[in-house]
Amino acid sequence: MRNSKPMQNQPISKAAVAGLILAIIPITALPGLIFSLTAFEHIDAHDLKGHRFAKLGTIISILWMLVFIVTGFFLFRYFG
Hints:
Blueprint: H1 14-24, H2 29-46, H3 51-79
Helix pairs in contact: 1-2, 1-3, 2-3
C-alpha cells in the first residue's frame, strides 16, 4: 500500500534521531539501542520517516556492545 502523505511532508521520528545520537556515544549504547528499537514501532504506528536512522542506531549500538563484551572478557581473563 502506498502512503497517503507525500514523502516531503512526513516528519522524521524523534525517537530514531535520539537513538542514533545515543548509539554513537559509547557510554549510552544501551539507551541508544532501546530508543532505536522502539523507533521502529513508533515510525510504523505514526507513518513517519526515519527507518534508516533507526536501523543505523541499532547497528552502531550492537557493535559498541560487542566491543564492550570482548574487551571485558579479555580484561577479566588477563587481569582478573
